[in-house]
Amino acid sequence: MRRTNIFISIILFAFTGYYAYLITELPTRNIPHTLGADFMPWVLTVCLLLLSSLLFLESLFYKREKQRVGRISLKEVAGILSLLAIIVAYITAMIYFGYVFITPLFMAAMMLMSGSKKLKEIIFFPIGITLAVYIFFYRFFNVLLPGGKIF
Amino acid sequence: MIGKKFGYGMFICVITLSFSLAAFGGGKYPSKPVQFLIPFGAGGSADVMGRVLVKATEKDFGQPFVSVNKPGAGGGIMYTALKSSKPDGYTVGWNSTSVLTCTNIGNVPFMCDAFEHVCRIGFTAMPIAVRADAPWKTFGEFVDYAKKNPAKIKIGNAGTGSATHLTAVLMEQQLGLKVIHVPLGAKRRIPSLLGGEVEVICVPLPEAAPHVAGGKARLLVMPTEKRDPAFPDIPTLKELGNPIVMELFRGISVPKGTDKSIIKKLERTFKKGSQEPSFAKIAKQKGFNISFMGRKKFEKYLKEQNELIARAYKISGLVK
Amino acid sequence: MSDVALAALADVLRLPNLIASMMGVFFGLFIGASPGLTISLGMVLLLPLTFTLAPVTSFCLLLGLYAAGMTGGSISAILLNIPGTPSASATAVDGYEMAKKGRAGEAIGTAVISSFFGGMFSLGCLVLIAPAIAKFALRFGAPELFALVLLGLTLICSFGQRSIIKGLISGVIGLIFMTVGLDNLMGIPRFTFGYVELQAGVSFLPALIGLFAIPQILEGIVIGVQVIPKYEAKISGLLPRFKDITKLFKTMVLGASVGTGIGAIPGAGGPIAVFLSYDYAKRISKNCSLFGTGHPEGVAAPESANNGVAGGAMIPMLTLGIPGDPITAILLGALMIQGLTPGPLLFQANAQFVYSVFWAFFVANIMVLFLTLSTIKVWVRLLQVPKRILLPIIAILCIVGSYALHNTFFDTGVMLFFGLLGYFMKKYEFPVVPMLLAIILGPALEEHMRMSLIISQGDPSIFIKHPISLVFIIISLISFMGPLVGRMRAHREG
Fold this sequence. Notes:
By secondary structure, chain B is an alpha/beta fold.
């Protein structure tokens, strides 16, 4: 955990620096008697700088902390990335083909990933859920679902 | 086993087919539901009036409207979405004065001429209101006091660059006053006035009306073209010799490039819808004056208001 | 009880009005429980229906939805750790922990009963001392609101479980995210990288859904962690026992009063009330170390505050004609559409209608209580759905729900971003609740601070000169330093 914390505080330093750079780029506009649009961001920058230094120093010098490893395994990274890829693909596909066509496929994929094996389940649940959400959101509450450019 | 799988396959095919049939209506406009974009959040004045209007319009139009709230950036989010949507008549925007304010302040990379404006439905007055126990009985007294006490009076508005702010800015310049503008926002303007935080607010009429009726607030002046039918005693800025007409108008816009026949159809339908008794009833209770303007008249009106707003931004120093 | 009140009760108990209440309650439970459908949206959708209904009937419908929506949000917070409404996010902290221990039924029962209590308490205040509360609430100007929000933000310290530094970092980063968007005071875009969509700022609900739900899905599917609480079939564990409920009485009174008070302040907002009452309940509790591990008091406090806010927000709406939150703003609109003018005059001119509103709220609360208590088994059964089916459903609801909110995939992107962030924060022991608090309160903090300075014309002493604001600032300092000092002392001794 200590090494991870040091690593995190370095990322935070970088983030703070980038944020500070963005603040200097802010457009200015003056309203009399009050603080500008950049006041709060500067306060936050200082706070974050202070806190990440504290985290850095704490992890550097304070060694009594239990070594609870928060390391991420390669398998986990791969799993997260593939899940994300499926979600992003789902969203992209919805932009073009709309909610009703894509959702059953997405749900089937998710079910496969989370260990579903029965074919019946993988076919009927996605279709049923897709329709249920469609009816509940669109027919019942008149809330638009992704429409799709092509259809 | 194969038979079973085949059965599932057929089932999927049937479902898919029935959906695609529903999706491709084909034929004459309108053949499917129309998205109705509202530039502010659910429950606000723009939202309620818009939803009631499309409800009244639907019968004649033949297809339902699906209302979608796109709040944020003073309306800028909605106008950006409208501008980038397909000009096929299936996305219609519920515009308001915000189409002029969010463009003129320069927060979106286009001006109000990036749209085809179909018609104006009506407007809401934005009177200047004070607490009932304020020392000024008339607008004249208020002006006198403000002149003698520069930078003392605080005028609340809905946010820097909003129509209520610009009204106050124009008034300030026209009358040679010096006031403090407080961007209270829509949520806080009435409590702030009644609680004594600001002395004056510029506020859409329907928000102020109940408090006037309840004896907690008074109206001083209306920045409208004519006196308001609900408050015939309140003078307009214009008749007091200050040519400022600033109204919170609402109307219909579509993306540039929409077919002329579709615009015509929308103009006709919304004209009819705005005359529906169901809409008129709600409009009256919400302090919304129905005064329909066709496409031509609305374009001219927009141009005038646009110039006024651009001028107000220059005066206020928000835009150089 | 006066004749008018009785006549009003008789009116509310007429069949059409009862049916309207029931419909509102059903609607509300579902809207509240599903991510992406908000109570305000539900109300707006029902609003056109009310144009043709009698005033009392329409209020039965709308108040049913209001009361039930709050409770529905807590059910999904407890069972799935997805707060359906922002106010339910504090309930998720302990409620979900309880569910994980197989006490889902008890948690929902506690939530529903404390909601009922909060609703009744605030209704009592509304009937008895509304004018006094309303008058006091009007004294909350910009500096007072700033101080109140500041007080809410100091709770960050108490939610930083293992490391206060990490809790604070999480909070500050949350505040930084909320500086993105159009600055209302000056109308200039900040940190938008040229995207107009970012001018609306970080949408609150997608961020909330992301922080809570996405880490669940990632952990459940990728690592195979047991993220859905186990279903326990033991009937005895389904309902909280009467003895346990009486033990929660003190907590519920506290929560309900905090909720009613803060609900009555226009523009303060329910989430502050909910988190403040959670924190205070923790402080006065004998078992404060159990908070956060699935303690019934941690459910009772925010839940009673939650529905206290509902009644509280109606106080300024009915007595002054000023809505306390977006939902009462819609209620106010409904009143005006019926041709009724809220404010002191309403009590004189339409006394019977005002009483009908009280009764309608009363009936709605009772309906929610019985309907939810009798269906706890059904709700808890939801946990019986296997993970391989439930997780994909949650994923779809999150994605589609965040889209449906404003009809844009941009919000879905925001949700995914916060989802990933939430996952890694959990992994590296950064508490999520401080970030949530910051996201809820950040914009208000900055706005009220700068607004105060405009009003005082740049004089910062405005925060100290206003007594209410001064008191809140002092309490904030104490509550900020408290955990720090406590932690240091514990350090020295340990």
